[in-house]
């Protein structure tokens, strides 16, 4: 937002005393950047880097990229530099930041809960095959994530994505990150309300808008009208969650201030009822509060959760109503928290009588080749398309009931299981040391091997146990809300440091929402992970009372 527009808006506000030591909040008059990230965003709107990528960098090559763009503004276009090949996570040497940059990029494509048709899935697969050494992971923010992208190929990739209605715009950076939408929106027989039009409106009005391209940090949105709360609403900055008002009918409650990483916090429920048509306006109000009042001095305190924690939900609502919406929200009891799965795995009836089928890759690992095979399958069986889930799964939408078993058999043949083991179903992994510059340990391959081993050791596990494998404290795969959350770190063994994990035990969302307990002694080497988890599971199976889950 320009300074002039900001000053005009601020004139409408109630004066709030300016504290002696500022947190960099624009609304309190701190417009001078207090760190280099804030300075970079002030120097140039990160959205402007799009044209430089298209018309300069892609033509002149990696060496021509301005370092401020490379390590900063590129993120607004969904591009991060990839970990350099051969780097060992800093175990053997301190590596200067610039040496971590390789001439390849990770590219994140946002799906925002959209239905991806066979043609779009094919395009995504072909991009992976042709430009990304056949990578194409499904992330837990409903993205497709590529690796090994060259700057020279970005314009061609964007062109192909745009044909399918997809984009990498603001897929990273201090921006409105990819939305989590219910994977079964508009089709589930037990849905409370279909929020698709609201997500589409938020995207149309605010993604790529310079008014919302400079948040203090990332801003994560989730929206679901499904009673399973299938978008992890507890862990997003802003969540709209389907609820029913006794007089007004279906609408959405508003939850704000969730986030994991270090200092994890669950979102606070406002206890309101927002009709579908008002959701985008309320999103704008909350996003504006974050932009104007969010802390900008320290990056470690710049997420919305810190402001919500300091203000409390009552003050947050008051500011939202008085300063941004100009009206009061309707009070309503928050929806009941669910128990059980949120991943839509298996076969389920749609409201139109057809079926949707949720399938599990292993820890989100997919490939361009697999997506092309999936597109063939969708066409062969006349399936409407797929949606991605926040649990690294894929849901086929609009399957003819007569063809369900044939579809499942064809899915199995390409490595996507509609009837996965408990271990395959409930294990997630972040990107890890293979590509992520912040990683300390390997995650994807470790998770794959772990699933295979636990399937052998506990083939008939009858109670779900979730395992989330993370390569560092950033908790991209939600360390703190798994039964067994694993945070990558180096572990001391004798006089050596080896790859391992700090273990968090007993995390959950839904009715038993809770962060896993972290005990000093709960550390395990990567090599010892199979045996460690086996001992936990054996103890649980031996001691559990009837109906007792792993976490309780
Ligand atoms: Fe990278 Fe850490 Fe996030 Fe894993 S948790 S993707 S290692 S930043």
From TrEMBL:
<comment type="similarity">
    <text>Belongs to the nitrite and sulfite reductase 4Fe-4S domain family.</text>
</comment>
<feature type="domain" description="Nitrite/sulphite reductase 4Fe-4S">
    <location>
        <begin position="173"/>
        <end position="327"/>
    </location>
</feature>
<feature type="domain" description="Nitrite/Sulfite reductase ferredoxin-like">
    <location>
        <begin position="104"/>
        <end position="162"/>
    </location>
</feature>
<feature type="region of interest" description="Disordered">
    <location>
        <begin position="1"/>
        <end position="45"/>
    </location>
</feature>
<keyword id="KW-0349">Heme</keyword>
<keyword id="KW-0560">Oxidoreductase</keyword>
<dbReference type="Pfam" id="PF01077">
    <property type="entry name" value="NIR_SIR"/>
</dbReference>
<keyword id="KW-0479">Metal-binding</keyword>
<keyword id="KW-0004">4Fe-4S</keyword>
<keyword id="KW-0411">Iron-sulfur</keyword>
<dbReference type="InterPro" id="IPR005117">
    <property type="entry name" value="NiRdtase/SiRdtase_haem-b_fer"/>
</dbReference>
<dbReference type="InterPro" id="IPR036136">
    <property type="entry name" value="Nit/Sulf_reduc_fer-like_dom_sf"/>
</dbReference>
<dbReference type="InterPro" id="IPR051329">
    <property type="entry name" value="NIR_SIR_4Fe-4S"/>
</dbReference>
<dbReference type="InterPro" id="IPR006066">
    <property type="entry name" value="NO2/SO3_Rdtase_FeS/sirohaem_BS"/>
</dbReference>
<keyword id="KW-0408">Iron</keyword>
<keyword id="KW-0883">Thioether bond</keyword>
<dbReference type="Pfam" id="PF03460">
    <property type="entry name" value="NIR_SIR_ferr"/>
</dbReference>
<protein>
    <recommendedName>
        <fullName>assimilatory sulfite reductase (ferredoxin)</fullName>
        <ecNumber>1.8.7.1</ecNumber>
    </recommendedName>
</protein>
<feature type="domain" description="Nitrite/Sulfite reductase ferredoxin-like">
    <location>
        <begin position="348"/>
        <end position="413"/>
    </location>
</feature>
<comment type="function">
    <text>Catalyzes the reduction of sulfite to sulfide, a step in the biosynthesis of sulfur-containing amino acids and cofactors.</text>
</comment>
<feature type="compositionally biased region" description="Basic and acidic residues">
    <location>
        <begin position="12"/>
        <end position="23"/>
    </location>
</feature>
<feature type="domain" description="Nitrite/sulphite reductase 4Fe-4S">
    <location>
        <begin position="424"/>
        <end position="552"/>
    </location>
</feature>
<dbReference type="InterPro" id="IPR045854">
    <property type="entry name" value="NO2/SO3_Rdtase_4Fe4S_sf"/>
</dbReference>
<dbReference type="InterPro" id="IPR006067">
    <property type="entry name" value="NO2/SO3_Rdtase_4Fe4S_dom"/>
</dbReference>
